[in-house]
Each structure stands twice: as structure tokens, then as C-alpha cells.
Amino acid sequence: MKALTWQGKRQVSVEDVPDPILEEPTDAIVEVTSTAICGSDLHLYEVLGPFMDKGDIIGHEPMGRVVEAGPDSGLSVGQRIVVPFPIACGACWMCERGLVTQCETTQVRKYGSGAALFGYSRLYGSVPGAQAEYLRVPHADFGAITVGDDLDDHRYLFLSDVIPTAWQGVVYADVKEGDTLAVYGLGPIGQMAARIGAHRGANVFAIDPVPERRAMAERHGIATFDYSKEINDEIRDLTEGRGPDAVVDAVGMESHGSPVGWAAHQAVGALPDVVGRKMMEKAGVDRLAALYGAIDLVRRGGTISLSGVYGGEMDPMPMLTMFDKQIQLRMGQANVHSWIDELLPLVEDPDDPLGTEDLVTHRVPLVEAPAMYEKFQKKEDGCIKVVLDPRS
Question: Which cofactor does the UniProt annotation name (predicted)?
């Protein structure tokens, strides 16, 4: 089969790789009909290279049809499913409490990580990813989300990651109807977090330096702001001088405006893999401009919710400010399955309240993936969300 493989820093290529096979009774094999490039895939492309191996298959946002079903998978050939990015058993202590990203069956204990993830480096199990023609789905009896046949892929595809991640981010922000919510970053997660905040009755302010991203958010009634040194003061002026009740940081470790973190990323990326892994495990530093901005902006007693991915072990945090402002901080990979019962009716609603019809800016054949990674990273051609079609 064809699959997108990691070959080195900023180097990915579509290669011929062996077809996946059933390995456990609960496995399924899926023919992938749509698979998206996630903002966190860019961390593999740029920052997390020391944890990647040449030939690793990338990707964790797929859907498709079952072509082989293990006897205990609970699935049948021909069923249409969405595959969430965490791999979880559904039966352990953590899964029973809805914390599927901490699944005790698939935890990657070697690196002190939570549940295994599709296509996401040694840190999360080196499981072959989903930017491919076919995908083996471990624990498909729990993991697979069965969907109907009537709607297009893009109405369901984002249940794999984007929508549950954004939903959890807003839930963790604890915004209520009438509250104010700021969203840092208007990539796919930020777009959805802003829309979900508005859907739940919040007054939403969104911050991003890219005009096309701001324009997309504005189509959904979101007040947007260009990123600048004065932006927090502008938003405070709109919230009686206090700042918003909550902030969602949908940017993460590769924030703009963080020259020290950027230099650290480049230095680690230039080291041999074994040395680079040790440096990141013990002394990793993220680019923290968005998080620092959120800490400054949120009102006293407010909440910051981190949806953007961070990975540093030595990130300097302004603890005096955080303690003095009595800030609540929540974060973590999305426990996708915990939110599906609430989200499935929304994506199937004919009125499309979350705007799934208006998120994809590029749908291209799998063979064009390397060019789209570069375009997505550089934010060229209005690129906000890329969906790959392995069957084209």
C-alpha cells in the first residue's frame, strides 16, 4: 500500500509499505477514505524528530470502511467508521473513568507517556499511522466509532480529533452562558474551540496573526484580533478591565514570538537522535509566547485550558503571577470517546451548528501530502485544514 512516511526533519514522502494485517482478535483493518493533517503532525515534522524513526507512518485523524474484522472486534466488513487518535482498551481503571488517553493497557511506560496514539513517534508507541491507504485499528471493539452512510466524510472525520479536542478544551475552560472566552490560535482546533464556545453561549474573542484564519472565524460570528503586543489590553478593555473568564491556548509548543524556544528546538533537532531524545526528555523547552499571553490575559480567578500540545520538561513558568492571580490550569490529550455521545448529534444536525462544512481548505490525493505539509507549516495559500484522499 501507499503511505506517508517520515524521512527526516521537514522530510516526508509517500512510499510503498507492507499492508497491515490482523494481529489480535479485537483488531480491524480499515480502508481509509479520508485522513487529515493535524497541527500536532507538524511537531513531528519539525520538533520531535529525535523520537521518530525513518519510515514511520504518520497520521491520526482517519475514517473509512472496514475491510477485515477480527472475531472480537464487534465490527463487520463494509461498516463505515471514524477512528479516534487515542488507542484504548475501554475496560481498564482509567478507561472506566473516561480517561482514555491514560489507558493502562496501552500506556507507553518506557517514556512515561499515556495511551498509545496512532502515528505519533516513540513517545506514544510508534504505532503505524493513518495517512495511508489502509490502517490496522487495535482495540477496534472499543475504539471505532460507527457512523452512517448518508453524510459526506467531512461531517464525521473531525470526530477523530479536532472536534473532541476543541470540545474538551472549552469544557475544561468551564465557560458558562454569558461568560467571556478568549482563544489563542485559529488553526483547526482554535477554529472549533471558538465556534464551540459561541455554541455554548460564551462571548468569544479569538487571536491569530493570519488574516485567512481570522476571516474563517469571523464567518461564524467570532470577534477576531491580530496578534500584537497590545492585544491583551484591547481585550481587557472589552471585559471591564478584568480580562476574559477563560482562555483556551490552541497554539502549543511552536508558538510565534518565542525566539529562545525556537533556538532550542533547532539545536535539539540538529543533535544525533539518541542525544536529542535525552535532551528533550530532561531539558526540553517549548516556545511559550501563547501560554504567557494567556496567563497575562485571563482575569483573576479565571481558567486557562491548554489544547495545544506542549512537550518541554524545563519550561519556565511565571509561578508568582499564576499564584497571585489564582489561575486554574487544565490540560491534556482529548479523551475522545467521553465526548462522542454529545458530539455525534451535532455533526449530524442538518443545520451544522459547528460549521463542519467550513473547515477544510484543501482536499488532495495522498501523493500530494509532502507539498501540503510544507504549505500547512508555512501557512501559505490560505491553508487551514488539509484532508488527504488515499483513494485518489
Answer: Zn(2+)
